[in-house]
From TrEMBL:
Ranges for domain PucR C-terminal helix-turn-helix: 450-505
CdaR GGDEF-like domain sequence ranges: 274-397
Family listed: Belongs to the CdaR family.
Organism: Paenibacillus montaniterrae
Boundaries of every Purine catabolism PurC-like domain copy: 7-121
Listed name of the protein: PucR family transcriptional regulator
InterPro entries hit by this protein: CdaR-like_regulators, CdaR_GGDEF, PucR_C-HTH_dom, PucR_C-HTH_sf, PucR_dom
Signal peptide: none
Upper classification of the organism: Bacteria, Bacillati, Bacillota, Bacilli, Bacillales
Pfam families, alphabetized: GGDEF_2, HTH_30, PucR
Amino acid sequence: MTLSIGDALKLSPLAHGQLIAGAEGIARNLCDVHVRNQLAQNHLINYGELVVLPSTSIQDPIELASCVQVLDEQHAAALVIADKGIPRQLIEQCDALQLPLIQISDEAPLHDLEQQLLHTIHSHKEKSALIDKQRQLMRFALQDEQPAALFDNIAYILNYPIAIISCSKQLLFNNSGLKPQKLLEHVPDKAAADMYIKTENSICCLSIMSHHECIGYLLIVLKREYCYAQEELLFIQAAEVLAAHLGRFMNAELSPDSYRWSLALQLYLQHKISDEAFVQAAAAYWGKHRAAQSYTCLIASVKPRDNQQQLQRLGQQLNLLGSTYGFACFNLIDEQQLITIMLQQDEHANPQAVEAELEKLLAGDSHPRLQIAISKPKTQLQQLLAAYEECLHALEMCEQLKITKQLIRFADLEFNYILQQIPPAIRAQFSSSLLRPLLEKDEQYKAEILKTLDAYLEHEASVSETAKALFVHRNTVLYRIDKVSELLGLDFKKMSHLMQLKLALVFYKLAASP
């Protein structure tokens, strides 16, 4: 964004001048200023130059008009003359060429005017560069996907060397050339409780805050001892972009190795890197850690989907649960879902205890409207993608089958998932044929019986457990089961008939889902 003559006329010192010709050319760019004693046709004029002539330079009007033609051909910005009596031929020539002609007082100190205008141009260039950086940062932040070279991109946009340090004083990135110990001198001893920004010895240090919690620091190595106020706003914006990115990786300990591992995991789950590339990236991390005995994926989905604070809190609770029962947890937030990979590192690890604690956690008031899907354990690292997709399928089936349980195991729904692969026409024909006598009943009766059958199958055909789940007497359940078995022509004491009922109900729900 370049300063125009029109902009300059609103600013001191040209605001005291008068535009007397070439008004249609005020959009010309102003890039430079020179005071010249006189004009000559062989003078070289810079692009966007504002030519300032003192009153004593007024020469032959015809010759001056010819020189103005040269100014226009060399794309000068405007002509400023410190004189009260400007020749009519010059005014007409400037109007014809649409070259702004500005008249100022012949008493104006031209050297001061030149310096003020040069300062104005320089300030405008700096402001324009700052706005351009802000735009780049905004475009960068609004990208659907952050590139792997996130830190390099931030440094490139800011046009300063940077370093990024975690709260535990781990160096995540550094292209400043300064030694880590030198950089750490600028990081507070205690994690910042609020936004922290301090410039000292040409280094600006800002806290990276995610949901009111400090997760690291951004250090910017300046070219001067101080930081402009407008630059501080840009640096804060850069810290916000980093917070949005790093806040997705909620590992118990954010270190360079764990960050690279989490980033590789994210790219792998998005099908951005191959199995081989992912295993190679993971091997670099596991070279310093004992390999896992099994891998389990969890996906937590919350409604409303913008409740990231709840997902952040759950991620911290999963870290604690995992460490308690022999698992290492790696968390990231992707598309408003918390994805957790639990790595079993201890042969005495207790996955059942983790699930039991999760059920207690979900039964409380701290995580309403939250569903967590759990994959089947995998023995190989490259099976993590399959585990991730199992969780996605489990959440999708819960929506299709209107399952409201908060903790969902893919193993419990795998049968339904397999049935889902049967062509829809065959599913619809089977369910309508078997359930037609029930579906032809009135809505209230139909809804009551379908609810009873769902509970009956969910509790492994136990009448007592079904009665508890429905808060009715067991005789009520027995009566309903007897009536519907007679209506459908099924004997629920036979496993094959129960299987037919299960298939018909699953197919019916799949057909009813959008």
